[in-house]
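In the present case, backbone shapes were mapped to integers, as reproduced here:
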Amino acid sequence: MGLNVGDQASDFTLKQKVDEGLEDVSLSGYRGKKNVVLLFFPLAYTSVCTDEMCSVSGGLAEYESLDAQVLGISVDSPFSQEAWAKENGITIPLLSDFNKEVSASYGAQYEDLLGFRGVAKRSAFVVDREGIIRYASVSDDPTALPDFEAIKACLRSLN
């Protein structure tokens, strides 16, 4: 069972690989400060995921102008995420749900995708400054991108 609009977002702390090493990033760290867009994606180094993260990185200024922090989350290791981001100019923070707990708690996980268990479904959640989910979209189709215009409209309504 996943999380829906109006639910309290499940807090988490995940690893991000930065130049200095591994860094913990917690959803609660944004509480009272910024709205957060959580973008779950299946796997680094795949064409649709690369297109999505590059597109969002290219339009990051618009999310920042809407007072939002965008976080990408996949079950890839933080080390492969870092290499993929550097190779493709992805600038949003990528967080590793390597233990597959966060995607499961959000209801954003495949039981089986191409023979792999626990891969994150392509999903988007907008979490407001108080930690309430204001937008939720979980797709069973790994090739279907989130409705970014709907995400931005939601963020505009929060400001």
In short: The radius of gyration is 14 Å. DSSP finds five helices and seven strands in the chain. Residues 47-58 form the longest helix (12 residues).
